[in-house]
Design a protein that fits this description.
Elements (H helix, E strand, L loop, with lengths): L9 H8 L3 H8 L7 H14 L5 H8 L4 E6 L5 H16 L3 E6 L4 H12 L5 E4 L3 H4 L11 E4 L10 E4 L1 H14 L5 E5 L5 H16 L9 E3 L5 H12 L7 E4 L2 H13 L9 E6 L12 E4 L2 H17 L8 E3 L2 E3 L5
Parallel strand pairs: 1-2, 1-3, 3-4, 4-5, 5-11, 6-7, 6-8, 8-9, 9-10
Antiparallel strand pairs: 10-12
Helix pairs in contact: 1-2, 1-3, 5-12, 8-9, 10-11
Length: 335
């Protein structure tokens, strides 16, 4: 009997079993038309030779990989982790693997990952990059199987799932107004993101509807969503003679940085200044004081994105509608 080796070829298996290469291929790919006795003989040879099916080669031939891409602009942001868990849970239920791709919100890196779709090394993709970055793929929206999650452009014919950022930001501001605040600051993110533009619009319109000023000096735009960015923006804002009495930050990470700044300034929260965030990441309930925030259904966002993608893969010609999920104001001690 030939020695067991993991480098055995399909031809060696066929010779060992006394069958054709085509028969071995049918057995290894679970195809019909092979008698049970022959199938057993082939599997005995497979075990004896230590043969392993080349899945990549099979995938390229059959144009299926069972691999889904999840493209995020920053894997270090805790907001994305629960979304990815939701994507992975649905993918695994349907026999797919998930590959996490950190694009840095760069169109070139995103397009490079999409090459895996173009060459059939991945079956589909879920994109969380800015809607402005997604525009680069608009001309392939009907060709490549992908969906947008959180960030989306309704003008592109791509299925999407997200929340109503405009309405949610308005709810945050109206909550602060109801608590008696008339000087409300905003810490916003990169305007390449749809959520940043929509949350700023919701903030401005809610103030205007209440007859309150939206002074430019009470607004700060940051280039990243880390804690330090929120802290520095808050320190700058609160250094003004007529500083805001409340701060709305477009992410919890920025809001937690704002809480740190308030502690450094010896300001009591919420007595001297209130803080409201957005997302409801796990740590927001553990801060001191606990953070009032707009909760996004992060895991459901991921699950829904995966379901939309699987619908598109099952029927590429079908029209898959976009979905807006509900948000919720979670009131805690910071306001």
């Amino acid at each position: 009997m030939p020695p067991k080796t993991t480098s055995a070829s399909i031809s060696a298996v066929a010779l060992h079993a006394g069958v054709s290469v085509a028969t071995v291929s049918r057995v290894m790919n679970d195809m019909d038309g092979v008698r049970p006795g022959t199938r057993d003989k082939v599997m005995t040879s497979v075990t004896a030779l230590g043969y392993r099916l080349n899945h990549l080669a099979r995938n390229l031939r059959t144009a299926t990989s069972r691999l889904l891409l999840t493209m995020v602009p920053d894997v270090g942001n805790p907001f994305y982790s629960e979304i990815v868990r939701g994507i992975d849970s649905v993918a695994r239920e349907h026999g797919y693997f998930v590959m996490l791709c950190d694009t840095g919100a760069e169109a070139g890196r995103e397009s490079a990952y999409f090459d895996l779709l173009r060459t059939h090394r991945a079956d589909g993709a879920i994109c969380l990059d800015p809607d402005t970055v997604q525009h680069a793929l608009a001309n392939e929206s009907n060709i490549l199987p992908w969906v947008a999650c959180c960030e989306f452009d309704p003008g592109i014919a791509v299925p999407y799932v997200g929340v109503d950022n405009y309405s949610a930001a308005g709810d945050a501001v109206r909550h602060l107004i109801a608590r008696g605040h008339t000087r409300i600051g905003l810490i916003n993110s990169d305007q390449r993101y749809r959520y940043a533009r929509e949350r700023q619009r919701g903030y401005l319109d809610a103030l205007q509807a209440a007859g309150l000023q939206a002074r430019p000096e009470w607004r700060r735009q940051v280039d990243s969503l880390d804690y330090d960015a929120g802290k520095h923006a808050t320190l700058q804002m609160m250094a003004q003679p007529d500083a805001p009495s409340a701060v709305f930050a477009v992410s919890d990470t920025l809001a937690i940085g704002a809480l740190s700044a308030m502690r450094q300034l010896n300001k009591r929260v919420p007595e001297d200044a209130a803080v409201v965030g957005f997302d409801d990441i796990a740590i927001s309930a553990q801060t001191w004081p606990a953070l009032t925030t707009i909760a996004q259904p992060m895991r459901t966002l991921g699950e829904t994105a995966a379901q939309l993608l699987l619908q598109r893969l099952a029927d590429p010609e079908a029209t898959v509608q976009g979905v807006l999920l509900p948000h919720q104001l979670v009131q805690r001690e910071s306001s």
